[in-house]
Amino acid sequence: MKTKLWAIILVLLCTGLTASGQILLKKGVQTASLDLTIFQDYQLVLGSFLYVIAAFLLLLALKDGELSVLYPLFATSYIWTNLLAISFLGEAITMLKWAGTGLVILGVTAIGIGGKK
Where are the alpha helices (DSSP H) in 1-117? Predict the structure, then answer.
């Protein structure tokens, strides 16, 4: 089975949704108390919702794509999470973290190229 382009696009969309969900969960858990009122925090609810949507889209993508190609693409969520953490959480990303992110990009590229042959 050859991986269809739309499946790759869906997985990349999933990574964006998952990274956004992670940021919302982090922001929500910083202000929420961990009791039943946790379900009233819009950031926690929206972050969880984004995870559910991403999981559903991933299932659709896996239907018509090779797992060995699509799942490594999911690792690009590390990239988006770093960028969003800088922008929305004010986190500092060290050179070592960027080096690791670069290795993820190289790995995803190698797998993508290997999936075309």
Answer: 5-31, 42-63, 67-74, 77-89, 95-115
pLDDT of amino acid 41: 84
The model carries a pTM of: 0.82
Burial of 18 (0-12, 13-18, 19+ CB in 10 A): buried
Q: What's the pLDDT tens digit per position in 96-111?
A: 988 988 888 888 778 7
Domains of the chain by residue range: 5-115
8 contacts: CB under 8 Å, gap ≥ 6 = 61, 65, 69, 70, 73
Cβ atoms of 16 and 73 within 8 Å: the answer is no
Show the tokens assigned to 34. 């961990």
> What is the mean pLDDT of the segment spanning 2-22?
93
Compute the distance between CA of residue 81 and CA of residue 83 in angstroms, rounded to an integer: 5
Cα gap 47→21, rounded to integer Å: 4
